Amino acid sequence: MSTPTQPQPAQADDLGALLNRSFNLFFARIGQYVVISLIVAVPILVLSLLLVVVMATGAPSVESPMGARALLGIGTGGVVLVSILGFLGGALVLGALIHAARTQIAGGETSVGEAYRAALSKWLPLVAVTIVVGLAASVGSLLFLLPGLAALFFLCLTPIALMVDDLGVGQALSRSCSLALKVPGEIIVIGLIAFAAGVVLGLIPILGLFANCVVMPWALIALTLAYEKAKKLAAPA
User: Fold this and answer.
1) What are 102-135's pLDDT values in tens digits?
2) Rounded Cα gap, residues 110 and 104, in angstroms
3) In Å, what is the CA distance from 226 to each residue of 17, 31, 144, 223?
4) N-terminal to C-terminal alpha carbon distance within the chain
5) Taking a C-beta distance cutoff of 8 angstroms, is the pair 25, 98 a contact?
6) Alpha helices, DSSP H only, in 59-122?
7) Residue 221 to residue 80: CA distance in whole angstroms
8) How far is residue 12's CA from residue 85's CA, in Å, rounded to a whole number?
9) How far is 215 from 79, CA to CA, in rounded Å?
10) Domain boundaries of the chain, sorted by first residue
11) Scanning 41, 70, 104, 144, which has its CA 20 to 30 A from the CA of 20?
C-alpha cells in the first residue's frame, strides 16, 4: 500500500536539474522498477521462445503442403497471440511504472503489487491511449517520419496525465498536447537519451533483450517530472 506523501523541497527548474533528479530517483529504486517491467517482459519472452522452438522442431517433420499450411497457421496465430499479450501487458506495465514514479516523486513509497493494482484500475483507458498514440505515431511515420515524431512529442505525456491526474482518455490527450509545448526541450532531450541508451544496451548479448526494462522506467520518471513542471508553468500566476 502506498505510504502518505511528504512535502518535498523546492527543486530547480532547469533541464539539467530535472535530468539529475530523474537519474537519482531511478537508481534509488532501480530494483523495484526493473521488477515491475520484468513481470510482463519475462513471460512474453518465454512465450516467444516457445513459439520459435515449436516452429523449429515442427518444420523438419512436415511432409505435405497441408502440413506446411497447418504449421504456418500455428506460427501466424502464435505471433498474433504473443503480440496481443505483449501489447496488453505493455499498457499495464506503463501504468504501474507511472504510479511508482508519481509516488516516489511525491516522497511516498509503493509496492510492486500496489503499482499494478493502480494500473489495473486504469487498464482499459491505458490500452485506449496506447492504441491512439501508437496509431498516430505509426501513421505519421509513414508520412516521411517527421509527422510521427511530432505525434510522439505531443502525445507522450498522455499516459502520465491519465495516471497522475485521473483524467479520461480525451482529456489526457488534450492535456498532453497543451503541456508538451511548455517543456519542449525536456521532452526532446529525454527522448534522445532514451533512444541512445536503448541502442547501446540493446547491443549487449542476452541482457540487451531486457534493455527496455531499464530505459523505459527512467524515461517515465523523467517525463513525469517534466509533466509536473509543465503544469506549474501552465498554472495562472
Assistant:
1) 999 999 999 999 999 999 999 999 999 999 988 8
2) 8
3) 11, 23, 28, 5
4) 35
5) no
6) 65-105, 112-121
7) 31
8) 41
9) 25
10) 15-231
11) 41
